[in-house]
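Tokens in:
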């Protein structure tokens, strides 16, 4: 996983930046189910990657998704909070 972190750091920075932009534009979801569902999806992808049930190149894609999904979701939450504090809520 450390090798993935070293190789994918531009993607991680892009995921946070894209998440901040999307979160700011979309705002915080109205349903409380949406953030919990996305967190559950992130945990499921991370569990599949940690169990190494998918071999080869698709396994690399799954590990990359497990690595990039939490920073993206964190960026979305940060952008949504920025939207709320800036008063630009839609």
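Residues out:
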């Amino acid at each position: 996983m450390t090798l993935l972190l070293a190789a994918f750091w531009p993607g991680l920075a892009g995921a946070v930046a894209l998440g901040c932009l999307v979160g700011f534009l979309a705002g915080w979801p109205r349903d409380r189910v949406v953030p919990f569902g996305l967190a559950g999806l992130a945990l499921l992808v991370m569990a599949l990657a940690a169990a190494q049930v998918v071999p080869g190149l698709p396994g690399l894609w799954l590990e990359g998704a497990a690595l990039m999904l939490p920073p993206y979701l964190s960026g979305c939450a940060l952008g949504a909070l920025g939207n709320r504090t800036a008063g630009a809520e839609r």
